[in-house]
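Agenda item 2: fructose -6-phosphate complex prediction
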Amino acid sequence: MCGIIGYSGKKDIANIIIEGLQSLEYRGYDSAGMALAGPYNLDIYKKSGKVSVLKEFYKKRVLEASSFTDKNSPEIGKNLSHNTGGDSSKKGISKNANNKLICSGIGHTRWATHGIASDINAHPHFSNSSNIAIVHNGIIENYNELKNFLLGEGYIFKSQTDTEIFVNFIEYNIRKIGDNEVDDIVFALKVALKKIKGQYAILLLFKNHPEILIGAKKNAPLVVGRTLVENKSNESMPEKGMFIKTKKGVQSQNYEYFVASDILPLAQYVNEVRFLNDNEIFLIKSNNIKIFSLDESVITDFKFYPIDIKKENISKNGYDSYMLKEIFEQPISIKKCIKDKIDNKSNLFCLKTLDPILQDIFSAERIIILSCGTSLNAAIYGKYIIEKYCNIPVSIEQASEFRYRNPLVRNKDLFIGISQSGETADTLKALEYVKENYNAKIISISNAKNSTITRLADVNLDICAGLEIGVASTKAFTNQLMTLIIFNFWLMQKTSTTGANLSVLPERISKVSDTIDIISFLNSFSSAISKVLANSDKIQKVALFISKFKSALFLGRDTLFPIALEGALKLKEISYIHAEGYSAAEMKHGPIALIDKNMPVITLIGNTKFLKKNLSSIEEISARNGKIITIGTVGNLEVKALSKYCIDIDFSDCFKPSMDGFITKASFTHNKEKQNSETYSSSFTEKFNENCTPGLGTIQDDFLIPITTTVVIQLLAYHTAIYKKCDVDKPRNLAKSVTVE
Ligand code: F6R
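Presented output:
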């Protein structure tokens, strides 16, 4: 989705903006542009296509400009040489003691919403006078109304974008108030923003004030980063009101500021960030920042937080793509996720961040999970696990649907929002709706500390996947699954170790040693993922086969059903092969009509739990000449005989004999209703064995099999996309964080 970058300082502005745009590429975009404000002019460069196209275009303009005399093109030549590494003295620019002046630049990667992807529609956009340049993420809902108003005022529009209307509406308000003083600009901006309906994160440059950079946000992310610069004695002092509080007291600090729509492009430049809140405006001027709220005046008590993204995490580390690197990082990311959630001293599950709402968690009678896309698939897995082991009802909701369908929310509902980016507009809007309308507590499960979702929720569970740059989510998904497993065990542990009075949770973990047992089991699990990764080339062969087809079907049962959905999602988003995920049983209720010799059907059979039922599905597919690919423990000869390919997985690390004692001895004593309506007297082991083919071993709990299977479907999608020569890191039309509804 659209990305924003901004800089104000004395460095090579064009270079910084282009580098920033390159690091925003992972978000997905179809055009790119930048505006540079120098002492002589405010210039815009923009192109549809990749940032590399913009870079070449800019270089060409610089060359052309430097071959002109000052007489031919006085403004372009002078401005381009400023802070771009050019020799400014030749162009007659007066230098200050540091050789450079403070100038500002903004950049944008656009993902078309209003108007096609074209040079004209690309950002930045000028106001009619060319005095203001804007970049904008979001959607202005009352753009038609504003456009008609501005047309009446004599404004004209060159592009099809809502952003051009936005910048002219700002200009209209500034014209009324004047722009001699920067304070007037801020005031006029406030007036304009109060009349804007919709979402925005904007950056603005001003021809008459090249030293300032202004930004504002509402319902779209914007992060300001800063780093200390050397405080030379002849530096200009910050203006009144632009003092920064430090531990030593109030004193002036010389900072250099960078702004972006997410932390990633800032990571290489800054060590502290502040996420702007909705309805805030910032003004960066002379190495200092002021933050205003739309309603009140200056905000004085804002803080910057250190960021922990290391520069090396941004590299591909020798892999061909971020996606492949991130798939291979999973043994480590899973371990980090587990480590983060275990207390070293007691060796028990420890989700300290949930402490502030413990009572609400314990008294919850239902959990409602809101999320989108891959995170929604993780949520379905969470439902299966939590309902199975904790005996508490879990509802899964597509976040985009939730708030528009008059949902029934009850008193003791506990909400979980899952979003790896923490910035998905659909999820945020749904959670905001919950917050505004119900007195319910919200847990966010996210991969981005300090992201909007973590600030919106009451408490946050960090999935600890580390930076994920590939647009198709991989390691964040498996860490979401692991986080949900641990959340589940933590709930179970709480009931036994604290005697917490839970309304519906069963006391399944009867003693501390059970928890220690399961933790040591989880700690050794990453080797199961490593074994799958070691078989990447075998999976590659199957991918070559799949790459020849136009459609594919993924089938799975129980906890492998969400993995079937995820397999189809991964395949379609990066290889553009149409794919659907179904519960294996659902196949006969419709999708079976599609099965013929041109339909590969990827069946996730897991271990032997549903072997008989899976076998029936496989028979049905085979009878219709479908091409069967089975993933799981494929020791069964009948399965082998019917499959075109079998991807065998060694699930030995997904089980532990003592798990049998730990999980399966549970009895459903707390859920009377369920006990009465169904006979759950048998242990899990007994139930599983009912479905087991004799001779294939004892069935034990299998909550980790979906994670192991996920790694196979990720590699399958990855290799298929590579065979189809697709750009796996930047699949078409997709964005890493979808910040519009
Ligand atoms: C697919 C993918 C998307 C996201 C979805 C929600 O690989 O990444 O389906 O899962 O856009 O994103 P988050 O989790 O950031 O809310």
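Discussion summary: Residues 372-375, 419-421, 424, 427, 472-473, 569, 573, 737-738 surround fructose -6-phosphate (CB under 6 Å).
Owner for follow-up: CH.
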